[in-house]
Amino acid sequence: MNRIVNRLEILKKENKKAFVTYIMAGYPDAKTTKELVLEQAKVGVDVLEIGVPFSDPVADGSVIQVAGARALANGMSHRKVIEIVKEVREECDVPIILMLYYNTVLHYGLEKFVNDCIEAGVDGLIIPDLPLEEQYELEAFLKTDELINIQLVAPTSLKRLPYILDQAKGFLYCVSSLGVTGQENAFHNGLSEFLTTLKSHTELPLMLGFGITKPEDVKPLNNVIDGVIVGSAFINEIMKNESNIENAIHWVRNFKDNL
Amino acid sequence: MEMNSKFGIFGGQYVPETLMQTLKELDEALEEAIKDKDFMEEYNYYLAQYVGRPSPLYYASRLTEYVGGAKIYLKREDLNHTGAHKINNVIGQLLLAKRLGKTKIIAETGAGQHGVATATGAALFNMECTVYMGEEDMRRQALNVFRMELLGAKVQGVSNGSKTLKEATSEAIRAWAKNVEDTFYIIGSVVGPHPYPKMVRCFQQIIGEETKSQSMEQEGKLPDAVIACVGGGSNAMGIFYPMLKDDVELIGVEAAGKGIDTKEHACSLAKGQIGVLHGMKSYLLQDENGNVDLAHSISAGLDYPGIGPEHAYLKDSKRVSYVSITDDEAVDAFMLLCKKEGIIPALESSHAIAHGLKKAKEMKKDEILVINLSGRGDKDVHTIGDYLKDKEGEKVE
Fold it and tell me: Do A56 and B289 touch (CB under 8 A)?
């Protein structure tokens, strides 16, 4: 069974919220990226998203843009990210999702990318600029559930839900606000209603992402979501502790414990 | 779901999910509007009474004599209100924005002509307007920044990456996603997610329609060849589209910057690979890891690493041929048009003129060549000044 699906089912049985984090591959450097993955797995992060840096990340806010630009300057690339996953897999079994832009996948070659991801032990993909209408090319190569393509839904997606749910696997990435990653205190006005509607239409776990900085942010929504995704806030912690990631890992553990 | 968002394999809607419903609504509104007699009447009213259309098809007799080949005509889009073809599209999109009940407008701009046109239209229709512009372009096009501000628009500088049109476009897409519920994004070229490439072409095809009827009137036949510059490619799509089914040779001119074999050019058709940027699949300048390369051109309006998807399709289907012109050649053509015809062309259009001079020479004297003069060059005089100073410096060294 796909590692993401497996982990989320266990959490559901235990009635626990899933904690998903995002880091940028190559920031602060490749070696630290690997350490960050392994250390997070140790402190119990449920699913890890690893961002592949891209020159034009239109769905990302300033924090991830800066981290991505630094990663590119460090020479990080799609090929190197897959190598990192391969190395990590020798030591741990934490579910891993690559978050990347479609040009990166296209450039690598769709079929080769899918095969290399599966071989390296990647479990899922999140491609924020590949909406449902454009997924058919990639889907043609996602024949098994070893690698799943995670669907995003936004508060503006209500009319599109039937089509999106039809295609969705693993979990639904629920975007908390319109706009880009890392906008603090900007949850959409109709978010709670939107999530309630979603919940009534699907059994899939609902993960809330974009702009979440602390466990308290999601307390009012706890009865409608199954977990949270934290990216920019975590990268901010890494930025504050570049030479000593222990502090950032401590922050992650604390977040998980208070969720 | 609908699959008519492509030109062959190009185009599509590669945008965050947040924007998809809006694109669907826009697509439906566009289809309705262009079939609505009242909408088209209003659009044509503003084109005639505000923009100043039809723009002349001017016989450039001194240039023709100098070159000694085909009869050279200039389609004078530079005479439109605000000085370029950009206003045609802006009026159309603004009327559509009004129809959709949007009150705020955002736009991206490179050379500033689209920004000025958008700021102008926003003033005319009393809408709040923010224009995203790279800081490098703000420096190169300071006059247009001032014009936009005079017109009441906010010019939002973008300091990421190359600080040019590519980054301004990314930033505009981010701002659009954030404010999609009350904001209309006016894209300035035949680029972006469906329906933008089709919509912009639709509001620019007036250029080609007029050219055809003016050529029939003045010469009793259609032109033998038509040349236009391509950055994103809106003036070119506008003049080419109505002639795609006619026996007219169509030529698009990309900016070769410092040379097509250097790293500093903007030739996405000649040198790019198929990729996805800013919501569309098209030819794209990119590096060995699929990151988007920076383009270079002396003209801010052509300084873009991608190209409209319909051009990618027309290139592959060989209906249109695409060539390139360097910075140096464009500046020479700029100077020549100033001196021979008393017209200061935009640096973008100067690329089309430069190739037009080569092409006209190969053609017979009774043949007709139309060059789309997409904009006027007032905005570029400082750039030309700097270029000439640099050249002088090179000689001294």
Answer: no
Q: Is A60 labeled as catalytic in the residue annotation? A: yes
The average pLDDT across A128-144 equals 96
Same domain, B268 and B291: yes
Q: Tokens for B85?
A: 């073809």
Q: Which residues of A touch B292 (CB under 8 A)?
A: 55-56, 103
Between chains, do B17 and A134 touch, taking CB under 8 Å as contact? Answer: no
User: Which of B5, B71, B77, B86 is flagged as catalytic?
Assistant: B86
Q: Which residues contact A112 (CB under 8 A, 6 or more apart)?
A: none
- Contact list, B286 vs chain A (CB under 8 Å): 103, 107
Judge whether B217 counts as a catalytic residue. no
User: What CA–CA distance (Å, rounded) separates A67 from A239?
Assistant: 9
DSSP B126-167: T-EEEEEEEHHHHHHTHHHHHHHHHTTPEEEEE-STTSSHHH
B164: containing domain:
7-48+86-196
**Domains parsed from chain A with CATH numbers:** 3-257 (3.20.20.70)
The chain-wide mean pLDDT, for chain A, equals 95
pLDDT in tens, A53-72: 999 999 999 999 999 999 99
Residues of chain B with pLDDT under 70: 1-3, 395-397
> Quick check: A134 and B179 CB within 8 A?
no
Q: What pLDDT sits at residue B171? A: 94
Neighbours of A34 (CB within 10 A): 17
Distance CA(A65)–CA(A194), nearest Å, equals: 28
| Residue in chain A lying closest to B11 (CA) | A134
pLDDT at B1: 44
Q: What is the chain B residue with the closest CA to A106?
A: B275
Verify whether the Cβ–Cβ distance A106 to B174 is below 8 Å. no
Q: Which residue is catalytic, options B71, B75, B102, B108?
A: B108
For residue A243, pLDDT beyond 90: no
Range A2-22 average pLDDT:
97
Q: Taken in order A247, A250, A252, A255, is the CA torsion positive or negative?
A: negative
In chain A, which residues have their Cβ closer than 8 Å to the Cβ of B180?
156, 178
Spatial separation of the C-alpha atoms in residues B91 and B84, rounded to whole Å? 13
Over 90: is that where the pLDDT of A10 sits?
Answer: yes
- Where does A17-164 show beta strands of DSSP type E? 18-24, 47-51, 96-99, 124-126, 148-149, 151-153
The predicted pLDDT at position B140 comes to 83
- Looking up residue B146, the CATH number of its domain turns out to be 3.40.50.1100
Cα–chain-centroid distance for residue B97?
21
Q: Does some domain include residue B170? A: yes
